[in-house]
C-alpha cells in the first residue's frame, strides 16, 4: 500500500548522546528518494538528540512479542533493495515486528575505515529503535545486520548496555584497524546467541576473517557460523536461501 508522506509518524525519543559527523544532507536525500516507494511498512522518524532518524516499521501479520532491528551496510538506507528490504518484509510475514533504521552516513567518497568517526552515533540510534519496539509491546528484540551494519551491531552489543537477545550478522568482516570497533574484538565480549552468516563468494575481507571471527567467539556456546554456497556479498540469486537461513536460526530464540 502506498504511504502518503503527510501520514508520517514522528516518534519522539529524546536521548542525551550527541551526534558526531553524519552527513545529514545525505540522509535527507535518501528520505527524499525512497520514502514514496515504500509499499510494505510505514516510515517513522526516531528523534535522537537533535536529529530525526529515518526508519521503516513493518507490523507482523499476527500479534507478537518478537522484534527485529534491521541494519543496512555502508552508505545505504533502511529500504535498500538487496538484503535489507527482503529481510525486513519477509520476517514481518513470519510474525516479527521489524524496524529498519538509517545508520550514520558519510559522503559518497568516504572509505570503509572513514566510518570509524561515526560509530559513537550508533548506540543512540539503536537505543531509540529498541525503545520504539518496546513501546509496541515487544520484549524480545534481535538485530539482523548486513556488512558494516553488522560490525556496528556487534560494536553496540559488546560495549553498551542493551536489551538485545540475539544477533544475526550477515557478511561481516573483521578489518577495522581500530580495535575498539573491530568485529572480532567485539565478538570476544558477546555472549548472547549469534549467527555469523556469509556467502562462499563474499568480499575477500569477509572470507579472510572467517577463522578470526570464529576463534574470537569460541567462548560463546550459542555462536554459529553459516556459509551459503554460491552467494556473493549482496546475496544475488541466493536471497531466498538467506531469508530461510535467518528465519530458521531465529526460531528457537522467539518467545
Quick structural overview:
By secondary structure, this protein is an alpha/beta fold.
Walk me through the topology.
Elements: E1 9-11, H1 24-34, E2 42-48, E3 51-58, E4 66-71, H2 84-92, E5 97-101, H3 122-135, E6 140-146, H4 148-159, E7 164-170, H5 183-187, E8 194-199, H6 204-207, H7 210-216, E9 223-228, H8 239-250
Parallel strand pairs: 1-2, 4-5, 4-6, 6-7, 7-8, 8-9
Antiparallel strand pairs: 2-3, 3-5
Q: Per CATH, which architecture?
A: 3-Layer(aba) Sandwich
Question: What assembly state would you assign to the polypeptide chains in this entry?
Answer: single chain
The spatial strand order of the largest sheet comes to 1-2-3-5-4-6-7-8-9
- The CATH topology is given as Rossmann fold
Overall pLDDT confidence:
92
- The termini sit apart by 29 Å
* Number of H- or I-type helical stretches: 8
Shape by Cα distribution: globular
Main sheet overview? 9 strands, mixed
Number of domains: 1
Task: Please write the string of helix (H) and strand (E) elements.
Answer: EHEEEHEHEHEHEHHEH
